[in-house]
UniProtKB/TrEMBL annotation:
InterPro entries named among the record's database cross-references: Bact_Solute-Bind_Prot2, Peripla_BP_I, SBP_2_dom
GO molecular function, one term: carbohydrate binding
Protein name: Sugar uptake ABC transporter periplasmic solute-binding protein
Superkingdom of source: Bacteria
SUPFAM superfamilies: Periplasmic binding protein-like I (SSF53822)
Subcellular location: Cell envelope
Signal peptide (from-to): 1-22
Chief place of localization: other
Length: 370
């Protein structure tokens, strides 16, 4: 009997200890037991969001408030579950980057019911009034910078232009494409570029401002779904179908670094492509190496340290009972969300050292041939 009691109490102690460990995992700062700020990020499968996690952890060292970061692994169901977990831990502020802008509405509506303040992070949550604030980069400027880079590196007339876009479930994909289109369209209309892979874009080439439906039509043809494999398959299909007139020196609008690298690899391995200019965004380490090696032409550097600082600054202001400062609004299809926006920087071989190494974003030792 005594033995049994001893065994049972040992088992209980072990269970208690592992329970405590589990509760601590992923938590940073402050007193144990409660979570003040819940952070939900879309996926660990892309370096962009792993980087955000790290930047949050760096920013939270020594903070008085407790936070917990959860990943949704590309699933809106998992995302909703994550939000519910955080609600149960008593969060007061939710910082969330949605996997799918529309689908996340249900998750934040659940948070709103508990009087939690919701901050949409990087991607806007759409068609709901349950979003209080939005912290973001200037996504239209990202696309415009990509488009302008292609224009600045165009060779002659009739240069084939391959267009790619992000996932249609991400409002940013529309903003990026809209920005790129605003500068590329006049150059398509005047024959500087000819669209190589989208009949929808070709059909709309006289239109400077596209409606959401028109953008959807183009995205439907050229989306990568933010997936490197999808991007690779699409690029292969496009190059297989392309006539000789659509090869040679070409321009490629790739929406972000992950897709840019796989699209670039496909174009580099096609014997009929003489040269390609390809865009990107995020300044992912692997893409910085590609830029150094002249395999990717540029990237748009979005300093995640600033976004994290803005989001956490907002959260702390709210926890302190004050009203955060915003710089404008974004229409999410239902309401105008008060937003704080951050600028972006174009990076290519010329300024990579200055912008990314001298600014302490990355270490020089992370790269070869700088
Ligand atoms: C982000 C990009 C990212 C993309 C894919 C967008 O919403 O703004 O930085 O590359 O999603 O995850």
């Amino acid at each position: 009997m005594k033995k049994l009691v001893k065994m049972l109490s040992l088992m209980m102690a072990v269970m208690l200890f592992t329970g405590m460990l589990a509760a601590c995992s992923g938590k940073t700062g402050g007193k144990a037991g409660k979570v003040d700020v819940g952070i939900v990020l879309p996926t660990k499968d892309e370096p962009r969001w792993v980087q955000d996690e790290q930047r949050f952890k760096d920013a939270l060292k020594g903070s008085d408030y407790t936070t917990e970061i959860l990943f949704s692994q590309g699933s809106s169901a998992k995302e909703k579950e994550n939000v519910e977990t955080l609600i149960n831990k008593g969060i007061k502020v939710l910082i969330i980057c949605p996997q799918d802008g529309d689908a996340a509405a249900a998750a934040v509506e659940a948070a709103k019911k508990e009087k939690i303040t919701v901050i949409s992070y990087d991607r806007l949550i759409t068609h709901t009034d349950a979003v209080d604030y939005y912290v973001t980069f200037d996504s239209v400027a990202v696309g415009a910078a990509q488009g302008q880079y292609l224009i600045d590196h165009v060779k002659g007339k009739d240069m084939p232009l391959y267009l790619y876009a992000g996932a249609a479930s991400d409002n940013n994909a529309f903003l990026f494409f809209q920005g790129a289109w605003s500068v590329l369209q006049p150059k398509i209309a005047d024959g500087t570029f000819k669209v190589a892979n989208s009949s929808a874009a070709e059909g709309l080439k006289e239109k400077q401002e596209l409606s959401r439906e028109e953008l959807s039509k183009i995205l439907g043809q050229v989306t990568t779904n933010w997936d490197a494999n999808d991007a690779k398959n699409k690029a292969q299909t496009h190059l297989t179908a392309a006539s000789a007139a659509l090869k040679g020196d070409v321009a490629v609008l790739a929406p972000n670094d992950g897709t840019a690298r796989s699209i670039a690899d496909v174009f580099a391995s096609d014997g009929d492509i003489k040269s390609y200019v390809v865009t990107g965004q995020d300044a992912e380490k692997a893409s910085i190496q590609y830029v150094i090696d002249s395999k990717q032409s540029m990237t748009v550097f979005k300093d995640v340290r600033t976004l994290v600082k803005d989001a956490m600054g907002m959260a702390v202001t709210i926890l302190d009972g004050k009203k955060p400062e915003t710089t404008g609004t974004y229409d999410n299809g239902k309401i105008k969300v008060n937003a704080k926006q951050t600028n972006v920087i174009v990076v290519d071989k010329e300024n990579v050292k200055k912008e990314l190494i001298d600014s302490d974003y990355y270490k020089a030792s992370d790269f070869k041939g700088l």
